[in-house]
Amino acid sequence: MPMLDAYIPEGALSAEAEQKLLARLTDVLLENEGADPTNETARSIAWVFLHRADVFVAGAPADEPRYRFVASVPEGQFNPDRRQAIVEAITEAVLDAEEGARPRDPMRVWVFPTEIADGTWGGGGRIVTLADIAGLVMGDPEKGREYADRTLGERRREAAPV
Q: Whole-angstrom Cα distance, residue 98 to residue 109?
């Protein structure tokens, strides 16, 4: 159940470019969470929230658009490689969407890949765990539980003090 908060200034992109960007970002989000972007169930729970933002730099309106993206996935879905990959992919997708209208400056794009601790994601009026989400996407609750146990176990072993 990946979610992306996309902060894009009004008018920074053409309507068509923005629509293509949001579709591309859905794929990027799923790919870097480790899901198949062609899986219709996975796509149905990949949401992008578009926020309009006025951005100020050093106390004055920004001279060029600045973009901010917060990618949220269940705990265990990002590893260091996936975090780096999603930052790169979102940055490149945004700069491509500008279609050469501005200097290609990656410092105008900031990406925050975040994991939501298992047991703290709520949806449908209840807590939704990684096992629940994986079971839904896989079409098998038991496989979802096995995946979550393996993934969270590996992540917690990596994070444990030595």
A: 12
141 found inside a domain? no
Model confidence at 64: pLDDT above 90: yes
Number of domains in the chain: 1
Which among 117, 151, 129, 113 has a CA at the least distance from the CA of 25? Answer: 113
CB 109 within 8 Å of CB 94: yes
Report pLDDT digits (tens) over 111-134.
999 999 999 999 999 999 999 999
Domain membership of residue 149 (yes or no) is no
* Residue 47 resides in a domain: yes
Domain that includes residue 28, residue range = 3-120
Residues 79-119: pLDDT tens digits?
A: 999 999 999 999 999 999 999 999 999 999 999 999 999 99
| Alpha carbon distance 21, 30 (integer Å) | 14
- Using alpha carbons only, what angle is made at residue 52 by residues 47 and 56, rounded to the nearest 5 degrees? 130
